[in-house]
Amino acid sequence: QVRLVESGGGSVQAAGSLRLSCVSSGYSIRNCVGWFRQAPGKERERVASLTGYGDTYYADSVKGRFTISKADGKNTFYLQMNSLKPEETGMYYCGGTGSWACGNFSYGGQGTQVTVAA
Q: Which residues are 81's β-sheet partners?
């Protein structure tokens, strides 16, 4: 059974940083992993992903500020978020596709709240 558990959310001032973690059980993080966010009243969007081949994707709005990485030995992957903006407040979710390619994200966690104060 796949279980993904996010942590690391919290409240931060604008321009601050947070590092989100996603601990995986039953899911190999050698597969594609990704991070999504959902702001209040908006659709969920993919923020970053990392294929099993090592290719990364970042939403245009976070390029240069967010970094996705993983620690295979810990079954954990991360999202380092720098220079956070108030409009990036929302629930952040980690996910996986079950394959090396990042297509349909079939697996996901319960989310962690990020609040960025102006």
A: 18, 66
